[in-house]
Sequence to fold (235 residues):
Amino acid sequence: MHNEERRIEKTLREVDAYLRAKNITGGYEILAVDSASTDGTREAVERMKPKIANLRLIGEANKGKGWTVRFGMLDAKGDIRIFSDADNSTAPRYFDDMEPLFRDGCDVVISSRNPKDAPGASRDVKEPWYRELLGNVGNLIIQIFGVWGIWDTQNGFKAFTARAAQDIFSRERMQGFSFDIEVLALARTLHYRLSVIPIKWKFDPDSKVTLKAYLQVFLDVFRIRWNLITRTYDS
Fold:
């Protein structure tokens, strides 16, 4: 979360309602990971704690989305750990499609908005033209230098077994939006079994991904490839 005061309560209610309805054996936890919000985000989460008994508020530093997700995934206690964006652009119910894949032995299950990854994947509306263009250019760069065969590396709804999460996120280096590519590249390098589910994604006009962030992701793809070549992730 970063300055999510306006929508975080709605998001937390949706996630909690979904998990309560599942009646998960052994229980569950919800981590709200803050990235140095300057509005009332933290206070909003604190107000929700009496209503959501298994809700924890963690994180304070503003070091980028990659750092924030890494902090949460390594602090989590669940046998399966999933991270999701604060806007719930991917509905929590899509975890229903992930569960059977974990039972079949998958270590990592991601969601995709691109039908090249999984039939039935789609978006409710097109993103702004510049994001569509940059996304297409970025996909080619990612395919060549990052993660071959995955066309939607950036959707913020990915799940991991505890073992895979600890192994992958403890090696992560990217602090910003490119962390998704790095995580998938590491999953492949470490030979974790990965599957993809299709989702229908809803575009949020309040998205915090800027043009500068897109360009930084492109540059980071080459850094990730260099880290793999030089075995930086081994240490």
Remarks:
- The chain has two domains: 1-62, 79-234.
- The chain is about 40% helix and 15% strand.
